[in-house]
């Protein structure tokens, strides 16, 4: 096994050394904030949430300043698996007592609409990000097959507009050449893409709409009030409204919110380039795939013929010493035919997880001009785009709708403070891993 590099330091301003950073199709390079600025809205965070909130606000006529502590797409937005999958994420039926059947159905509808937001944004701004349609959920156990059948039935009742097919074990060879799975659900309305190129394309789109984007401008403190003042080392922004779009990297900037999201490490590897015939043997439809374990495995082919394989979930805040060596056995369990293949990239990043696994979209009760969105629990590629639209609608005064629905859900603070949150959640996740063995 040969690995070019493991990962850039978490606190470096440069993009982590990954397959995505090595295959950028544009360089932007925005300036750092220096001096005093004013805007209708200040957005903190240059990932998908911040970028799409800025785009949506600019399209509604607001002046917007976006501040990114490092580089656009530096966090999970530029490091993730690139899987564009329908849905909010985890089971939303749990919120029936709180939201009612109509509210839960609306969450499901928004989970489908979120993919269309990404599709439309890519088309509108001609963003080159290797968008490819096709995704398959893979069943590891008989109960997973039952759950996928329920999903298929429900999506059919909802009038899902894209081809959707349950696959038996015998039919699964159309999608994947691995003997580990019992069947699957193939969805041609979900797919995969190059996330960092998407983020950079959206930053360029935001800038073209008049958004002032500043990189390498970490926020040092926020002055709250009727007009929040956002301070950096060399400048400040005074705005009518503030949007916190930092997710797992919020830290001490807003303790009330950061206590409700737990940063967790997720990891990826990328093989060397492989012949087209071999790629076709692994994943004949070039679909993205994901299994049902906890933690899950997710993988797909890149546009240039590599296998991108992701998974694991660490709550300790410490990355494995050797990400490649840690992830390689997981990949070989799925594809033993890859034994001897070289790994050229291995990297990790932090996702944000909330205690109830529902994305947190709302505003601070005591500061109604401070909005936020975070805690996507690994399902952020589409939901971040949805969050951007919901935040913009709320700021523009469009009452009701999805923002109010999300804001009705209370989100508990993780117990134990910053030092005990991770061990406590790790114990909770151990229960789900044990269930996978049954």
UniProtKB/TrEMBL annotation:
Pfam families: DAO. Keywords: Oxidoreductase. Transmembrane segments: none annotated. Coiled coil: none annotated. Residues 40-393 form the FAD dependent oxidoreductase domain. GO terms for molecular function: oxidoreductase activity. This is Glycine/D-amino acid oxidase-like deaminating enzyme. The lineage of its organism: Bacteria, Pseudomonadati, Pseudomonadota, Gammaproteobacteria, Pseudomonadales.
